[in-house]
């Protein structure tokens, strides 16, 4: 039985991104040994989209109110891209200290982690 999912982000500054995610998510963290901090994710879902290009994977965080969330992140000194309306949701990007970007969006579609 599958009991969870483990996401790996590759970073040019792993220590900074680990600390950033710990503070951003505010969830439980564990030390897997040797400084490898692992943060719990909020409830998650997975979607499979068709592509004619090489298969790839993406990670998006979800929120209930993207405008309020991005305002809070900016107050905390976090760089956030402008919000765009994608139809299926309001999308932005959160810049990681290591140079990467995490997607962040307010979904307009049914969310699998919420009761039907």
Automatic annotation (TrEMBL):
* Domain of life (superkingdom): Bacteria
Task: Give start and end of each VOC domain.
Answer: 3-107
> Which Pfam families does the UniProt entry name for this protein?
Glyoxalase (PF00903)
In terms of InterPro entries, this protein maps to:
Glyas_Bleomycin-R_OHBP_Dase, Glyas_Fos-R_dOase_dom, VOC_core
The protein depicted here goes by the name: VOC family protein
Source organism of the structure:
Actinomycetospora chibensis
């Amino acid at each position: 039985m599958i009991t969870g999912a483990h996401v790996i982000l590759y970073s040019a500054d792993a220590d900074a991104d680990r600390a950033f995610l710990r503070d951003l998510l505010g969830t439980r963290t564990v030390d897997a040994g040797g400084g490898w901090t692992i943060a719990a994710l909020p409830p998650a879902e997975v979607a499979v989209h068709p592509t004619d290009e090489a298969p790839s994977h993406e990670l998006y965080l979800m929120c209930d109110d993207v405008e309020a969330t991005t305002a809070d992140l900016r107050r905390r000194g976090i760089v956030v891209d402008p919000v765009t309306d994608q139809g299926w949701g309001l999308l932005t990007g959160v810049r990681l200290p290591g140079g990467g970007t995490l997607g962040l969006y307010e979904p307009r579609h049914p969310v699998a982690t919420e009761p039907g």
